[in-house]
Amino acid sequence: MQRNSASRIRDEDVRDKPTFRDSLVEIREVFRDSDVAGFNIARFDMPLLQSELERAGVKAFSSRDIVDAMTIFHHKERRDLSAALRYFCDKEMENAHSALADVRATVEVLEAQLSRYADLPTTVSELAAVGHGGESQYEDSGRWFVKRGGKLLFAKGKHYGKSVDEVARTASGYLEWLKGLGDLPSDTAQCLQGALR
Fold it and tell me: Model pTM?
């Protein structure tokens, strides 16, 4: 699954398509006796699929082997400070593992990351939350919201990247619709309730 803003699934992409529940027979046939492979599939795609299956009243996959190319990539490619300095700053590490060299390299890498990735948050607490287990960047277990610059933003859906306050002002019906879905986790519903006040 692609999950960036350029390839988001829009309402018009799925408007005339069958629901997940209506597609269960086909989905089960595709996955029957199959192992599964993908990139970041263990942390995103499979939990999402399992959640949808459970919501539809179907026993989720429990005995499938999941091959995650991202896990293999992270296991095989060096991801230490020397590799980061080479990647972000095009420099070789000198005096690796000496305290001062490590501190200087870390500062250079962090500054290069902030320069390269415009969507990174700029406060220390928000930077500290980036990437922790893939969960802490989200404000809710439904993965609908992230916090950037002190603002609650949509992390998916029709208003991806927009602040919840802005959507509440300009399209509050969307928040009401989302709240009415009925199967939202309680912390997601609380975020919505706060925005609707």
Answer: 0.46
